[in-house]
Every structure is written in C-alpha cells, then in structure tokens.
Amino acid sequence: MAKGPLVDRRKFLAGSAGAMGAAFFSGAPLDALTSRIALPQSQVWDAGLVRHLLPTVSESRILLKVSFEQPLSAAPTLRVGARSFPGRMNDTGGRFWQFYATDLDAGVPHSLSLVAANGSSLCEPWTLSTFPPADARPDRFRLLLFTCAGGPEGAYTGIGQRRGNLPTAIRNRLLRRGLSFSPDACVANGDHIYWDLHSWSGQRTGALSARARTSNFDFSGTVFGSSNEAALMLAAGPQIVPVYGADFRSTPVFFLQDDHDHWENDAAGAFPIAWFQLQLARATQQLYYPEFLPEANRPLGLPWSSSSDRGDLSESFGTIRYGNLAEVLLYDVRRTMTLGPTAVFLDPNVEEWLLARTASAGVRHVVHAPSNPMGWSAGKWGEWYPDILDSDAGALTTAVPKPFWQDGWLRQHDRLVGAMSSMRARSPLVVSGDLHAVGSGRIRRSGTLDLTANPVTTVLTGPVGTAPGGFPSVVRGVGSSPSSHLDLDETVPPIENHGFTLLDFLPDRMVLSLFRWDVNSQPLEAIDSLEPFYTTELPS
Hints:
This protein is an alpha+beta fold and 540 residues long. Helix content is 17%, strand content 28%. The strands form seven sheets. Strands 14, 15, 16, 20, 21, 22, 23 and 25 form an eight-stranded mixed beta sheet that branches. Helix 3 (168-179) crosses helix 5 and helix 7 (348-359) runs parallel beside helix 8. 52% of the residues are buried.
C-alpha cells in the first residue's frame, strides 16, 4: 500500500459548513464557532485529518462514523487487515463518511487504517476487536454507561458556576476517566444534543425556541443539500465532536436516542415527533454516531430498521451480544410512542422482541437499557409514570391528573418489569439515564405486580454534560423520586452529580460500580482519580 505522510490537522479549519454556516447563528464569526469544536490533541495517536471517529461492532462486523477536517473529493477506504471497504459519504460536502466492514473473524483484534483515494494515510492505524461469537464462553465483559453528554457550552467559571453546560473539555475528561478502566464497549444512553426547536411551558410545547429562531431552520425543506444541513452541523457538531474526538476508536459505542436527540423536550405537543424533527434526528445519527448492527435474535423488520437508506442497520433498537455471557437490549422509547386508547412507548413488535429475549435461554445475563428510566419520576409528561409535580407542596403526587399522560405507557412498563422479574435464574437489571443523576434501587412492586421473589435492580447511569443549573432540583425545585406506582428500595437515592457507571459481567454475577464528580465542590483534577463511590454485586 502506498502510505503518504499524515496531514497536519492544524492546517485546516474545523468549520463544518463553510462561510455560509455562520449566517445561521446571528452572524457569529466562523473562527469563533470552530474554536468551540477544537479537539484535544492526542499525545499517543496521530489523528491526522480525522475530527471524530466512533465505531461499533458485532461478532463479524464493524461500522465506523468519521468526519474529517476537510472535504474529501473521492471516497476514502477502510482497510481491515488485508481487506478493503470503500467509504460512503454521509453529507453533501464530503467531510462525513461511514465505513461498513462485514464477514470478519469474531472475537479477535483487527488492524484498521483509513486511506485517502491517492493512497495517503488519513490517520494513524489502530486496532478494534470484534465481539466473541454467540456460543463462546468469555470470562468477563465490561461495559461503560452514561447519559446526557450533550449541550451547547455556556458561560462557566468553575466551582459554584450555575450557568451553561459543562465545557466539552471537561466532558471529554470524564469520559477519558471512564475509558481508563478499559471497558470492552460503551453505551451512551440518550441526549447527545440539546437544541429544542420549541419552547416548553408547563406540560406542553409552544412557539419556536430562541435556538430555533437563531438557527433559522426551514421546516418545510429537506435536511441535506440545503441551508438546513449547515444549520444542523453548527448546532449538533460542537456538542458531539469535541466530546468524543477519536478517543473511542478502539472501544465500540452504542448510542441510544432520547427526546432531545429528536430536537425537542418530552412535553405534550412535541411527541409523537413532527416530521421535520424526525428528519433532523435521523440526519444527526447518520452524520455523527453509528446505528445498531444486525443481530441474529433481533428481527430485521422492527420499526426504523432496514430502511432503504440504511440497509440492514437499525436506528432505534439494538443488541449488545457478548458470547453466551451477556445480552443487553437497547431501546429508544420516543421513536414509536403513541397516544390514545392503545397508547404505548414501544411498538408492539418491539415489545414482543423484548419479551422473547428476556425469556430466552442460551445467555447468562440479560439486561434492559431503555432510553426512558424505570423506577424514578421527575414529574415530566413523557415518563412511564403518572406522577406530576405539585408546585404548592413541592413534591410529586398522583392526586392530580397529569395532563395528556397515557396509562397505556404504564401498562407496557408493567409487562416489561414483570418479564424481567420472571427470569428466576437471572438477576433482573435495567440501566438507563435521562434524569441527570446517578442512582440505584430495587423494584419490589409495580402496580399489582409482586416482584419480591426476584426484585428488579434499576440504575441511573450518571450524566456527563448537564449544566450545573440544569439538574431537576434546580429546574423544578424538586429532585427525582420513586414513583408512587412502585415499591422501590433506594440503595443509592438519585444524586445530582456528573458521573458514569461500569457494569462487569462474570459467569456467576454482575458487578455494578457507580462514579460521581461534584462540579460544585470538587476540583477538575479529581476527575482523573475518580473511583467508585458505590459497588454492588448481583449474583445469579
């Protein structure tokens, strides 16, 4: 192979939309915008022209999402060992590409390299391992989980600062600490961006938000090949690119979308999501993070799977299968949520798949990872639970009906947790995010369901990018609390700190390790030595 010199990435601007893009943000200079997307320079791996690189894998496939510092006029190539796979352009300008490698050997490290059409290297080679085959018997599997890593940067001065999302450099620092524990894979559970297009008031959405007016989207237009493409990149790029960079190049990632990833908050009137916001959600995923690869036990015909423009990839429902040791079921509850007498969060075919896999044999541990948390409520509209905030009492209640809330969502919830508890040979576990907290508990009752014979452990994985003034207790005056629909033993009541969770799968148990960092009392340097503040084992 002809290997040319790596291109100095600092010679190129990181602006994703060219001069035209600046006009969508009140005429802000392009250099000011691109400064927000500047990446930390790696001292051990030369990123070359790569701005960000996020991979996912299965036992025989690899999918990469990559963006480059400058447009590429011809398709680059991914080389996996001696094999080559052509890139597919995902934008209209040639800066965003994906690479899909198939029929790979399972459970082994693969040498990867990205090569330009002229044969020059686009970055330093690296390694990435496929998962073991479904019938393999691995001794251990470690998963890193977190939520809410998105958000535009705001004013921030350090300890005690109450405005603005955490600077992306701090989010990156938190994730690097998570990566220092050598996870085999990572789940980013929802809210990768915050750019809600309508304002929120009470339980309903209203007029266009300030961000929508500033970014000047054409709601009747297409996303790609129009001014909407530039506006999307300028809104979403700074919330994703510098947070991850290429740090996860050797760690498979699984990105679940939640409400804000559909460019709205989960208030009545916003969901089911409007067509334009749906296109923005799909475009954001297409550009920045990988879809879910096919898996033998997940039907290809589930909603938002095998779309004509995505091939056999799934946008909203995924599986992490690691030999016979672990199967993690990933599901977005926003994309298929409905209203009315038959209301559900999850399409019936998705629920059928989840129930079948929960009851299945042949895998030691089965874990649920929905985008909407189970166990706690913040009194918001788009939750599983009927609890609502009583502003006068400063607490959640069910004595007041929650406007536009659907009891069909709760019935589906009970079917799922009932199935989890019925796994008598396994410890039922559900891990989720969204609530901007790290916490843990055990559900012993859900409505009329008695789960005491095998309680369901539920975990809030911890947020990465939440604004210090964006925690529920600040925004709503009350933190998250167990829903009145449940008997929930809180082993770790929700803590509004930034953090993440490690989940270790072993043949005879799972081990949960919760991490937290307090922006209001701890120095930045404490991130680099974070250790679990709570650890528990779930035997099986």
